[in-house]
Amino acid sequence: MAHGNGIPCCPVLALLVMVTFSNVFLFGVMGDEYVSAVGDPGMKRDGLRLAIEAWNQCNEVGEEAPNMGSPRAADCFDVYKSTSQLEGENDCSFCSKFPHLLVHRVTEDDNRLGVGTPFPGGQKEVLQNVDLYAAQKELYLGYKCQVPDKPKPWQFWMIMLKSGNMDTYAAKCPKNGHKIGPYGPDNQFPCFGKGCMNQPLIYHNYTTLQGPKRTTLKGRFYGSWDLNADLSRGGDNVQNISYYSVTWEKELGTGSWIFHHVLRTSSKYPWLMLYFRSDATHGFSGGYHYSTRGMLKIIPESPNFKVRFTLNVIKGGGPGSQFYLMDMGSCWKNNGKPCDGDVTSDVTRYSEMILNPETPAWCKPDDPKLCPPYHTFPNGTRVHRSDKAHFPYDAYHLYCAPGNGNHLEEPNILCDPYSNPQPQEIMQLLPHPVWGYYGYPTRKGEGWIGDPRTWELDVGGLSHNLYFYQDPGTPPAKRKWTSIDLGTEIYKAPDQVAEWTVSNFDILVKLRK
Ligand SMILES: *[C@@H]1O[C@H](CO)[C@@H](O)[C@H](O)[C@H]1NC(C)=O
Ligand SMILES: *[C@@H]1O[C@H](CO)[C@@H](O)[C@H](O)[C@H]1NC(C)=O
Ligand SMILES: *[C@@H]1O[C@H](CO)[C@@H](O)[C@H](O)[C@H]1NC(C)=O
After folding, report:
1. Any domain includes 18
2. Four-residue CA torsion sign, 404, 405, 406, 411
């Protein structure tokens, strides 16, 4: 530490507290009062809370990548303002050189924690199990990042990576939650051979203050699923390997974080996913069957919430890129009861609006097996999929039914039984006039490349009116969305690149009056 002119300079670090007016941040949207459900409304908090996780095809770890530790890591820090201890003391050379300091809460040792290595709070029983170890590491990182708040403390935004590769001969993924043995070949799933379900390399540049005045906060996670990839010269220019990168940047004290995402597939890894998630702070979150940590200090419930964010799609990721303008995940049983961790009766429910204009409607008037049984208009009118004059076929990419539904309407297609630890149900929408009421895109191409937009989506209203399967005569499930995210899934298409930024993200929950 340099002490310029011999005058004792003892920098005092004062925690920079964000300007918050009160815990309940009210706004009027058409006369209603809303409160933010996320810990960092609008991504404005300088002291970032961010984590990354990687999943295999069935949302587990399976096997850690060599020397990478368990695929959970975080970048969480507080910003301190350095001031001289003496009142009116202006010659603190340290202070003028470094007016702000970042104090990171998660160390490299924390981020490198891997199976077998104990850590505070880690239970002995899970130390040798890669799947359970990752789940507990997430809790530990959450403990280090946690921000006290009302009505609940919260931990971090979550970057999620997933590879769709599956080695059916390795028998690593259960089928609809039931353990099964090796089988194959199954060309539904890409796999180049033994080890194809590996976790990615995860490199990390901790957030630092950059720029001529040291006022730009910037950091990065990046890597590849190709374990022999040389990313020493960055990854952007390396051809023919899988690659992902999330860079985050913000000007101190002003504006929003901007999260810049890149995802590239390769012939070995043609099915990859990269999402930016706002997950529940405890309990399960969409697709994750362990207790999670996240951003949602309030769990949004249909129909009373909206989601606001700015999305700039720079590269689309090719025709197979199911770019999700909005992706939400929840879990409830077919009898409407909340999930309890029993993977044979819990059902993950997903709904997504696919923004990519190249994605066709597979739901068709003459072939309705990929259509939901009915569509509900905002005024409550229901139209059956056999009503060719009124059913909005082009509004649906596909609907697939949960594999454990006992009273499904025929014809139907069951969702992939492997890609979740439990059965799943998926509703995928396309831009269409029927969604305009909720603020969603009504025409293909809206919000796509060259058309960055700030969206305010009535996600609550839309998700309230979507069809989801339940056993006949059971009380309707409470639709509580434990993961609200956006990003892309490049589906079985090698050598494709998607690139986009997300900023100003917020979830607004309507206050009950
Ligand atoms: C980012 O991190 C990588 C891997 O740890 C390192 O090789 C690289 O030099 C870092 N880049 C910067 C700009 O600090
Ligand atoms: C990448 O792979 C394609 C197809 O296999 C090949 O034509 C191309 O030359 C490769 N490029 C590099 C830089 O290796
Ligand atoms: C509800 O909305 C649909 C679609 O706009 C329309 O066809 C139908 O007539 C409306 N029903 C009522 C009862 O207003």
Report:
1. no
2. negative
Q: Which ligand is nearest to the CA of 387?
A: 3
Is the whole model's pTM more than 0.85, yes or no?
Answer: yes
Ligand 2 atom nearest to 267, measured from its CA: 5
Counted domains in the chain:
1
Range of the domain at 222: 36-79+99-358+430-510
Query: Quick one: which atom of ligand 1 is closest to the CA of 208?
Result: 14
Kindly state whether residue 196 falls inside one of the protein's structural domains: yes
Q: Are 250 and 258 within 8 A, CB to CB?
A: yes
CA 442 to CA 429: how far, in whole Å?
11
- pLDDT tens, position by position, 472-485: 999 999 999 999 99
| Number of residues assigned to the chain | 513
Least confident residue range of 378-382, 414-418, 482-486: 414-418
Measured in Å, residue 376 CA sits from the centre of ligand 3 at: 10
Q: Do residues 139 and 293 make contact, with C-beta atoms less than 8 angstroms apart? A: yes
As for ligand 1, residues whose beta carbon falls within 6 Å of it are: 203, 205
Residue 337 lies in a domain: yes
Q: Which residues of 435-468 are buried (b: 16+ CB within 10 A; e: fewer)?
A: beebbbbeebeebbbeeeeebebbbbbbbbbbbb
Q: What is the pLDDT of residues 134-155, one digit of tens each?
A: 999 999 999 999 999 999 999 9
Ligand nearest to the Cα of 376, by number: 3
